[in-house]
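Good day; I would like, with your permission, to put a structural problem before you. What I wish to show you is a protein chain and, alongside it, a tokenised description of its three-dimensional fold. I would ask you to consider whether the tokens describe a fold that such a sequence might reasonably adopt. You will find the record immediately after this paragraph:
***
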Amino acid sequence: MIDIISEPAGAPARRMSARPGAKVRLLQTAVVLAALVCAAAARAAQCPTPAAAPPPWPHLAEVDRIADKALARVPMSGLSIAVMRDDKLVHAAGYGKASLELDVPATPQTVYGIGSVTKQFTAAAILRLVERGELRLEDDLRKHIPDYDTGGRVITIRQLLDHTSGIRNMTTIQPLMADRSMDVTRGQVFGWLSRTPLDFEPGERYLYNNSGYWLLGAVIEKLAGEPYDTAIERLLLEPLCLQSTRYNVPGEIVPHRAAGHVREGGRFLNAPPNSPTRPYASGALISSVLDLVAWQRALFGGEVLSAESLKLMTTPGRLNDGKPTSYGLGVAVTNFRGHRKIAHPGGIVGFSSFLAYYPDERLVIAVLTNTMGVEMRSEVEERIAGLLLPAAAGSAVDATGQRRRTRQ
């Protein structure tokens, strides 16, 4: 017998058993909750124990100086950096504040909005579905999302992935940006996108945009038979034990979550609300630098995709006329000082990010900050890379490593 409320002395007894079925429902709920707790505990037990702190690194003081200068120069409220070399974590640290209001320091465990770095996860999920034979990169979008009006044009899954679809970037469509705190529905987004003229015919040009990845999220939901967030968790996050990475739900309690900030009039302010339904599969994930370097190790170590799929992901796309672009499937494909570089910047309300992988050196650098619109994120990454990667012979890149960047 389960008593919910203790009654005052002399009061008529009120027990849950007085309501038919209540006791059964409570027991069923308790069983379900216990099962969920046990499942979570089992998953945690299967995940590797967090690595011990890395040994002293020769470049530690130099990275600290880079971070401190960046915090003061922009300025930024907080910053976390992780560096992995040859699958070994050689540096992980936080600088500044994860929350200015609460005076909480940033750490390697701090969780930030990662913005467009989310696209790597979305692209990987699509490629997993390709490997299972559930879709092809050359499929017409309408095959999987028949209620999206393409105006009679064939727009392929590949063109959504490599930004050659011609669909207008949703961040430039006023109704989608009017009140970012409000949720948007699939029908609203489909309507706004399909009613907006294309920027160019599919495959004719490359133009970075978020709309294609929003639509890819809908494709994932259709084929997986579940919401995007749970599909990403099941396909990628749980198997890889990325416990700090998840779809951003503002109301959830997230351990180590940073507060997002913006700069106005020379002072920091709390970032305004931003519904995750707007960035969705193009930018709504949150993560830590430790999870992001672990993600890169798994992705490029063959734990996520086949060698064939990984090659597709990291090969620059081609336009209808055969000319290559600088973007693969969810990643920018470029170089730094003559070294091959696979990377992506990210920016979302309150946060900025940069994630880079140098395949020939097996070097990963993750930079996350809780200040919006910080271009310094890429400069921080390049300055750290510059400590480790000498300019290759014949490199056309200047000493600062400045090159054309992929927009977020």
Observations:
- The radius of gyration is 23 Å.
- The first strand starts at residue 78 and ends at 85.
